[in-house]
Amino acid sequence: MKEIKRIWVRLLSGHSAEFQPDTKTCLIDQRFLLSEPVEFIASAIIHEGTHGRLLARNIPYSESLRYRVERACLRRELAFAPKVPNGEVVIAQTKAKLGHPPEVFTDEAMLERSHVGEIEAARVAGIPDWIIRVALQVRHIRTKLATSGTEARP
Question: pTM of the prediction?
Answer without folding.
Answer: 0.84
